[in-house]
Amino acid sequence: MSKTVEFYFDVGSPTTYLAYTQLPGICEQTGSQLIYKPMLLGGVFKATGNASPAMIPAKGRYMFQDLDRYAGRYGVPLKINPHFPINTLMLMRAVTGVQLRHPERFKTFIDCLFTALWVEGKNLNDPATVAAVLMQNGFDPNQVLALTADEEVKAALKDNTDKAIQRGVFGAPSMFVGDQLFFGQDRLDFVIEALS
Length: 196
Known about the structure:
It is built from nine helices and four strands, in the order E-H-E-H-H-H-H-H-H-H-E-E-H. The chain has helices at residues 14-30, 41-48, 57-74, 89-101, 106-118, 127-136, 141-148, 151-166, 188-195; strands at 4-9, 33-38, 174-177, 180-183.
């Protein structure tokens, strides 16, 4: 059986962005398949009683410093979004919709969202900004908006989120290698060990 990493993610998490920049290379180097599992982090927080570390001022300050350290270690750009936290319900429905209906454009789609949020610091709480980002990246905002209203897409995102919670997920990023859960972009060395 081929090795896989199931990557439960929400684009609104800066730690998830960092993991996202590293996982394709990890999977390539270990001969593993990366399986993207969009979920709604707000739904996970609500179900598990968890919250963003940024909601605790001292922890939030530390977390943002630590994220800068990891971005430096990974050699990737990171700008803490001044509009954080972002309500990602519509974004994650769009991500799920593109994955379901246009899988060939999925990677390009999540690339543009992660870049807008965590490299360019754009306000993706604002529909006009989201539309501009989509157009700049070759997506029709009206088609994407239609996906967010698609009942099958809504159900798929809810199902992914429910399954994540059932499997013990309490935050993002969460990665599974087999039945082993690894939480956080600072646990990627354990993901590599599990795949090796």
